[in-house]
Amino acid sequence: MKSKNHPLLGIHSLLVMIFIYLPIAFIIAYSFNSSRLAADWSGFTFEWYVSLFSNRRVMEALSNTLIVALVSTVFSTLLGTMAAIAIRKVGRRSKAGIGGLLYLPIIIPDIIMGLSLLVLFTQFHIPLGKLTIIIAHITFSISYVYVIVTTRLTGMGGQLEEAAQDLGADAWQTFRHVTLPQIMPGIISGAIIAFTMSLDDFMVSFFVSGPSSTTLPIYIYGQVKRGISPEINALCTLLILVSVTLIFLAQFVLNRGKGQKKRSVLPF
Amino acid sequence: MYLLRIHSILQLIIDVRKRGDKELKKMKWAGLALAAAMVLTVLSGCGSSKETLNIYSWADNFDADVLAAFEKEYDVKINYDVFANNEDLLAKIKAGGSGYDLIQPSDYMVATMIKQDLLAPLNKDNIPNFANIADTYKNPSFDPDNKYSVVYTSGVTGIAYNTKYVKDEIDSWEDLWNPEYKGKVILLDDNREVIGMALKKAGKSNSSTDEGEITAAVEDLKNLLPSVLAFDTDNIKQKMIQEEGWIATVWSGDASVIVKDNPDVAYVVPKEGGTIWSDNYAIPKGAKHQELAEKFINFMLDPENSATNYESIGYSDPNTKAHEFHSEEYNNDKMINLSEDELSRTEWLQDVGDKLQVYDRFWTELKSGRE
Amino acid sequence: MKKSSMGLLPVLLWLSLFLVVPMLIVVGISFMSRDDLGNVVFHFNLDAYATFFDPLYLGIYWDTIVLSIVTTALCLLLSYPLAYYIANAGPKMQTWGLALITVPFWINFLIRTYAWVLLLRTQGVVNNLLLDLGFIQEPLQMLYTKGAVLLGMVYTFIPFMVLPIYVALEQMDKKLLEAASDLGATGWKSFWHITLPQTKSGIMTGSVLVYVSTTGMFVVTDILGGAKSAMISNIIQSQFLGARNWPFGSALSVIFVITSLILIALFNKAMTSRHMTAKEGR
């Protein structure tokens, strides 16, 4: 496929990428810095990587964070996508109302969401822990998935679906063979944002967490008072490394499996 | 294990690409299996037969080895979660059902929590080592008979300044207003601390409830604002070490950390006196393991454990019996071990009741640079 | 509800339970008052709302809105060309482009923001570089300024703009572009009349996400702005925590949510009324 990109576009994109990666490069560099307070460069060390793996609390926080992010992403993607598809069939008036409701979780200040859910959970004697964090994350993530899938559906129009139904496909077949493949990039993008939001959420998680459900952001915010340990930089470096490697591997496996036609990992 | 999970998600995504019937069916099962696996992981890990002590405190507030020693001696598991400030802690404890056995609120927060009936009275029979605490830290004004709290560490707000840039002798809060330091002054990001400082400068109580006095202090602070580089509580250390700021209101314990990384920095408790604060042990009402929490407090107050712990975290140790077990370096640190003279000039922050709204309104005004 | 819209049921149930109920409590609290300890007292009044009209708080809210709009505009300017580039690249490049944009944001937000502090401080890398190159004689004070806050906001929310625009661009009917160029339309012309209108839904979604997230952000102003300017979310936060004035915090939140919804609706209307395409008319 011939790329139709203007060279100026390429330069712009490169500059934006540099902007995005500038701080990341620093995080990686400082993960090898022997200074505890990350004030100055005071020598190269692997110390933080070594102590990271023996730090039970960081590892626990990492595992909690990943569990919460994965579970809440799966459920919110499901619910958000269902909502985006179903809302098209609703009358104009209720559409505005329900659409507004679906925007609410994004708009509501985090602290309100955190505190009000905390009150709700304690009133109903639901023990605070990973489960309550997951419920809270699903609640705000639904919106992100919903808006992005809606973006895709808006651009899609209904002609294809109508055509499929005219040709005798039932509702499920139409959905599976026409709608779903069409909106998949929206679903994946929504899921990515949901996952990202969950990974990074501090405020909501903080209020609805309980004993032994500390997530990484809670751990890191707590550390600010003493100065964030370079162990966290080391952890971030590893996370980037693992993510990029996984994407690379998946792409590699896929391309080999599919032979002639190159495919991309994410169905964009 | 997580790598596996991430991989299976990717695999799912890949499956979707194929869009065939068979794959879709497979994907459905894979999805179900994945969801089931996740739910199981979430539900598991709750069952540990050992008794658990749930501690809720500031990050890195204890030496890990001392915690491990306690776990071993009492055959229990310690669960140590963190909060970032007193207000977050209050919101969490107030809602109830937080599940924590031991918390570490600061002085004024102990007072608030007592008033709100959130703390359980301590059974001193379980804490014989309470006797080791220095008299200065016993029976503080916020909890007169130590009925609900035991001091953990303490410090005083003073001035830290870099002698490379600040050539004059610093001994008064007034010095922050010196126009030579314009743009290089850092203040604590805390309404009570900063307005309290200005009140002290004027010779008033740091917890004044007289609106006239408060207004005068705020007017005075408005003259200081153009000099302020930043308001900061947590990262003031880095800012002073890196010489971004020349002069700052700093807690004594933090000053000790700064001086270790930048020997040009000096610390002084101004002649008008400063605010003294403390972090304390307390037990929330309804804690499931109150006795264990008390045993923990007692364990930490053991002279040797105490020395190991405070030596490692670098905070001031209120334990008089621990003195002989501390290193010379620790005992000689003037910022960790403040003199009687310095301590005599200090004042605790009192709860100002409804006037908190006045402080808050003025603080918002100061920080937003609006009238 | 018709059978076809049954898909909304689970979401509506979920949101009613975990969003609507708590929100109603917040609305209720906003009409109450507080005692000296900060406990909410059941005494109906509108004081909390009246307090908002203090010029101090109005001004802070106005500043927040302006900063959020500027952030959104900058994000759009930076992101659209990037999204365009990725959408028009080969499939392999597309995957990598999106992955490279997303992965950095899996790093904790605080850590990323502190990295900017390392870069921008007076003895930081940027200043040292400029000094070495002789562009400046004295280190620049870049941190703790409004510019630093803006930079931090734009940086934080770029992916929120790139992803939706990409989603819209990737789906665009490229045959239209070909037809246009066959008819002699120049690059800019066909971009303006074909590409831009077709990607409006992406721009709209991205802008809403960035705008709303910026208004809700307060940590950036603390870390990069030196806590010298307050955003409305800083105020809401401090009313619930430090100041212990839940009624006022709740009232601020209610006002905040309502004005945001109105702004989104207005923006939505402005976007759909111009260049309305047949597809979107449904």
TrEMBL record, chain A:
Which UniProt keywords are given for this protein, alphabetically ordered?
Answer: Cell membrane, Membrane, Transmembrane, Transmembrane helix, Transport
Show where the ABC transmembrane type-1 domain sits: 62-250
**Keyword Transcription regulation: yes or no?**
no
User: What SUPFAM superfamilies would the database entry show?
Assistant: MetI-like
Q: Where in the cell is it found?
A: Cell membrane
Span-the-membrane segments of this chain are 12-32, 66-87, 99-122, 128-149, 232-254
Membrane topology, record value: Multi-pass membrane protein
| Top-rank lineage group of the source organism | Bacteria
The record ties this protein, via InterPro entries, to: Bact_Polyamine_Transport (IPR051789), MetI-like (IPR000515), MetI-like_sf (IPR035906)
Q: Which family does it belong to?
A: Belongs to the binding-protein-dependent transport system permease family. CysTW subfamily.
Q: Mind telling me what this protein is named? A: Spermidine/putrescine ABC transporter permease
Task: Tell me which species this is from.
Answer: Paenibacillus vini
Q: Specify the taxonomic lineage.
A: Bacteria, Bacillati, Bacillota, Bacilli, Bacillales
UniProtKB/TrEMBL annotation, chain C:
Q: Which residues cross the membrane?
A: 12-32, 65-86, 98-119, 148-169, 208-227, 247-267
Q: Where is the ABC transmembrane type-1 domain?
A: 61-267
| Signal peptide as annotated in the record | none
Transmembrane among keywords: yes
- Family per record: Belongs to the binding-protein-dependent transport system permease family. CysTW subfamily.
Return the PROSITE patterns for the record: ABC_TM1
Q: How does it sit in the membrane?
A: Multi-pass membrane protein
What's the protein called, per UniProt?
Spermidine/putrescine ABC transporter permease
Alphabetized UniProt keyword annotations: Cell membrane, Membrane, Transmembrane, Transmembrane helix, Transport
Per UniProt, subcellular location reads as:
Cell membrane
Q: Which organism is it from?
A: Paenibacillus vini
Q: Which CDD domains match?
A: TM_PBP2 (cd06261)
Primary place of residence?
A: membrane
